[in-house]
Amino acid sequence: MIMSGFKEDHAWKEAAVAEDRSFRANKSNGNRRKAPFYKVLQGMPIAVDAFRYGAIPGVTAYFLTHAHSDHYTNLSSSWSHGPIYCSEGTANLIIHMLSVDKKWVKPFPMDIPTTIPDSGGVQVTLIEANHCPGSCLFYFEGRQTVNAGDGTFKSSYIGSNRTFRYLHCGDFRASPRHVLHPAVKGKWIDHVYLDTTYLDPKYTFPPQAQVVAACADLAMKLASGEPPVSKPSGVFSWLTSTSTASNSKQSNQSKEPSKPVLFVVGTYSIGKERIVKAVAKALETKVFCDKRKAALLRCEADPELDALLTSNPKDAAVHLLPLGMITSDKLPSYLDKYKDQFSKVVGFRPTGWTYVQPSGTDQLPSIQQILTRTVQKTFTSENLKPGKQSTSTLQLYPVPYSEHSSFYELTCFALSLKWGKMIATVNVGSEKSRAKMAKWVSKWEAERKKRAEDVVAHRHLDYW
Ligand SMILES: [Zn+2]
After folding, report:
1. Exposed end of the chain (fewer CB within 10 Å): N or C?
2. What is the Å distance from ligand 1's center to 269 Cα?
């Protein structure tokens, strides 16, 4: 037993106090917010994604999973509390975006166990997280040497010979690659720190790789003038309009070379680059974005993406825009700027929330039902439907693209590893939400013990 139920309950109560929004730094609290227990590894002087707490007592190594703001909160040019370990891409990004002093930023290689300085000999392996560029999972292995952090729990293993293994998932989209990674495969993992963003069976969405391929396929069809396979009811579809509208004769006679279609993809900060790359490659075109965004993309150290970028918007049939621009009000004026080059605009709005479950779907399925009902799911360009705001020159496609694991993927991940404790790191603010998640974790635990196979069978290395 690493931490009893009672002690864990107490630790969560401490965490709730630490994360209280009304917190104000002052003399009586030492001018710093206390770090909740799940931010510091048990028995090790190591903190993960914990930059809002200043210098955490006993911590000598600060890890950052990826460069999204909710993970690097408060990290700035004035950081001076210790070395920051992360991937090369994340290192470039925090130096570029946050002006963190280079002397603190220590990129580690991917996939190679590396000993962390001043950590009592703990080794870490960085594993690609399948989230945004630069994101990784951290797999830690070593002895417990110190009770670091602000929690009152004291481990009884400090100084013992036992090796502890912790897998910190940061933000991730779980895939068979994670559980088959040589650093992790077959190992007993004491703690898994889990990205529980979608730990609820209502979150079902198709595999990322299929969605990316569907966007590329649809873009090719639209660019070549091939009508989309299915029209949404009651929506005027401009792609088939030449054969049905009154101007069909005219357009058949005057066969001017038609202007290409402009594709715009919405993104915020970093992430969703895979859709952009796949669409541009399918259309054999370049990608345009503004200077600020281009500088960010170059930090990501992705040669494939770098080769696609251009600073000339007229050279590229794919433009990257802030997600807020991909609307029926804003895109017409954007298209107007390039009306000499492009005839129409197609917008892709990638969000994790667009996939609606068929009505009547069981909300309290058994683990077996979860494994069988979702596995048949396939997603193609025919599943992408334009939004109702479409006009003769504009079509908007919501894209069910998520860089967090679906509930099905979390389930497959949890059943494919041997672990002692799952620690939720997202949606942990309320006791009700924690209790709901804990119920699923205990279902996974019971199911895992019953199962004969080590790893849940997968359809592809990239998804179950
Ligand atoms: Zn993230």
Report:
1. N
2. 10
State the CB neighbour count (10 A cutoff) for residue 376: 7
Angstrom distance (rounded) from CA 455 to CA 416: 4
- Cα(230)–Cα(81) distance, rounded to whole angstroms? 57
Q: Who contacts 101 (Cβ-Cβ below 8 Å, separation ≥6)?
A: 77, 79, 80
Assigned token pair, 377: 């799911």
Helices (runs of H) and strands (runs of E) counted in the chain: 14, 16
Name which of 36, 90, 43 is nearest 63 in CA terms: 90
- How far, in Å, CA of 309 to CA of 319, rounded? 10
The class level of CATH for 5-202+406-450 reads: alpha beta
Whole-model pTM: value is: 0.89
Domain 208-239+255-400 has CATH 3.40.50.12650: yes
Cα 427 to ligand 1 centre (Å) = 14
For residue 262, how far is its CA from the centre of ligand 1 (angstroms)? Answer: 29
Residues sharing a CB contact under 8 Å with residue 321, sequence separation 6 or more, in sequence order: 264, 265, 266, 267, 289, 334
The per-residue pLDDT for range 292-335, each reduced to its tens digit, is: 999 999 998 899 999 999 999 999 999 999 999 999 999 999 99
> How many Å apart are CA 291 and CA 311, to the nearest integer?
8
Residue 190 CA to ligand 1 centre (angstroms) = 24
Q: What single-letter amino acid sits at 182?
A: P
Per-residue pLDDT of 110-166, as tens digits, reads: 999 999 999 999 999 999 999 999 999 999 999 999 999 998 899 999 999 999 999
CA distance 348 to 172: 22
Cα(70) to centroid of ligand 1, in Å? 7
**In angstroms, what is the span from residue 131 Cα to ligand 1's centroid?**
7
How far apart are the CA of 67 and the centre of ligand 1, in A? Answer: 7
Token readout for 355 is 């996939």
Question: Domain residues of the chain, as ranges?
Answer: 5-202+406-450, 208-239+255-400
